[in-house]
Amino acid sequence: MDFTVKNHKWHSKEIIQILKELDVEPDYGLTDEEVKNRLKKYGYNEIQVEPKKSPFKIFINQFKNILIIILLIAVFFSAIIGHIIDTIFIVLMVLLCVLLGFIQEYKAEKALEALKRMLSPTITVIRNGEQKEVLSKELVPGDILILEAGDKIPADARLIDSYFLKCDESSLTGESIPVDKNAKALSDKTSPIFIENMVFSGSTVVSGRGKAVVIFTGMNTQFGEIAKKSIEIKEGKTPFEKQADEVGKWLGIIALIVCVVVAGTSIIKEILTNKISSEFIINITIFAVSLAVASVPEALAAIVTGCLAIGMYQISKKNALVRKMAAVETLGCTTVICSDKTGTITKGEMTVRKIFISNNIIDVTGTGYSPKGEFKYSGMNTEIKKDDSFYWTLRACLLCNDSNLYEKDGEWFITGDPTEGCLLVLAGKAGINIHETRLKNPRIGEIPFSSERKRMTTIHQIEDGRKIAFMKGAPEVITQRSAFILENNIIRKLNNADKANLLKINEEMSRNGLRVLGIAYKEISNLSQFSEDIVEQDLIFLGFIGMIDPPREEVIEAIKKCKIAGIKTIMITGDHKLTAMAIAKEIGIYKDGDIALTGEELEGLSDEEFEKIVDKVKVYARVSPLNKLKIVKAWKKKGEVVAMTGDGVNDAPALKEADIGISMGITGTELTKEASDMILKDDNFATIVKAVELGRWIYDNIKKYLTYLLRCNITEVAVIGGIVLILGPQYLPLLPAAILYINLATDGLPALALGVAPPEPDIMKMPPRNPKEKILSWDVKALILSAVLIDIPLFYFIFFHKLSDIPNARTELFFLFVIIELMVALNFRSLRYSILKSPPHKLLILAVIWELILVTALINIPYVRIAFGINKPSISDLSIIFSLSIVISVLIEIFKVFLRKRAKFNVN
Questions:
Q1: Which pTM does this prediction carry?
Q2: Which are the catalytic amino acids?
């Protein structure tokens, strides 16, 4: 990739000069007022994309349907020959149909816009002297970025500080190897591909951390330059949309064939009898096209898209942002949820409860993040605050730490990792001034934490001039890398018996549900020999920190729901195995007889061995991201639909491999969010279960909508088209305006009300849906078939029974269509349960009542009756029609009984 750093060769200037030119202090950042001014000058930090559809464009697009165009042309000629009333009413019906399509599409667009706003990525900056998260699009030149592993870089920026910073710039260069970054000024002749003191929009921080000042935003970035030359790739349709499209296409083809055959046959008959006229051709064309418009679900895929988009928006209200539309339908199929423990199953508010130092356990009081509490101890040979182990342990907790503790409006908060946050609280409880201690003991080097290393090391220039390395991490790792122990103010050699005893204490603390961290330190004599192998060996062991993160109360109920719904819940944690088992047992995930595996034990199993036992493993402890990937693959090989959570940068592969990748909105890195299908705004496991429930609900409602739509449309084509084919054009069963009105009544409010029907009473008591299930599933086909067996014969009987009086026959047929289809809408509130167990909801009832009021009002207008070709129905006619609709409703309910029995038989 040819990087072209524009204008002032920012990479060759000293950072002091750059900060001066950009008029910004690195520790204070820009003021809010200055940000507003620069936003006006430089615009938002956005890559220009295709402009959104305007309401006018959406409305005009509704007229691009070829059938609508043909119908309007035919209506125009109808007006010329004098059929003014018919023309007015058909145009009115068409406009109402178009308006309905516009409302659906516009609502979907608005839902998607709202989602895009919610999904806007954020980045940590310094403004007004404080660190805060802001939307990436609000960045301006001069903003000070705080960069950490996993962050997706949203602008081109010059580095101020860099601590082992590495960036993945493959999106720009195509090179997969991470690039080492530093803050040193480079020669102005440096090749663009070797600019190491700048970070670029679209790249990702792989490891380390840093601070940078924004130089270019939006289309002025390197990514923006690429975007100018690139063609926007539109997102493909979901499998569900494709199925809907396919169904709509074939139904449309069948309906069009019927209509062409009807019109063609009628015209041929007229030619053979020498009765053909232009008026007849216009009338039969309007009739045929009206039938096609009414029966072809040309908006089927658009309706599905709209329902999915609205569903995404509904899920977002439950604190889950679905990034990909396909995930909505997949949620309803989820059979396994693999969830991280900390912050997702638990509250994520770590509190230190016990400290083990100098062969003694110290109890720590206090809750939350308030640095208030006491240290209760016994059996120590010296006063606790004079014990060197206590002194160095608390300084290690404070200095080997990237989080911050602050007070706002009388409440205490942390920024950063909750585990690190509670260590700062611990230091605060001992009366240590956090800010002052950090200033007097500056960090001069670090080896960052990673899930593979299970440890973090920082090196500090302490007050007396020495260089001290502090390490914190998994107890077994710290114990293994320690060669000495500080005990009762004496440093002595750590022997194998000591190490065995320390691991035993760790196990005992873990068995009590505590998460345990080991702490160690070491003096560094020669910083030039700084390397992982040298610094992280032969340390002095200090102690263990035992902390607890209590389970969320709502999670226990959510796990019960999962069990009833046939969803398996798996807990994954970096904690000790015994800690993990204790918490999993408490919340109902683990029971006697289940298996718990550590990452090490998992790595020791071959894929084939693991696949044999994966369904028995409920808890994974001390796992790495690669272990997560192995877990996902094993479950998927068993045909399960897997949801996997993650927050760290290395979780991205597992999230991509999972059917539903779920990232954390609060603690998750930008890279993880980018790789995920869904983001939890509250990092709460219970939210996943709510999203699964909503996914099932959305799918069910789309299914109801489609079943109702297809049943009604097929009935209309078979009855209206069939009668003309059998009897000829002189016996038109309904006139075009009437056909279009029936379509409007069917595809209008009642159908939309089905799309937002409340969930079934047992939606989370049913097993997950098979992901291979077609949109035209067995029950959908059966309910459509019931129309062929029940409705169509009845319609034919009514019309042929009144054949001697065509206006009266049309009247009964018209009202039969309207009343029966409204009654079917009430039946289809549930495709499984009876109308008594799952009664129509308020919106559906109001929609049906409105349609009845509207048709009653319309038939009292003479011009409407002329356009529809019907009479005012008599009381006896309406009584018969309502009686027949009740009979059909009862027959549908009986049909549903057989469907329930078949479904129960299949489950058993």
A1: 0.69
A2: 340
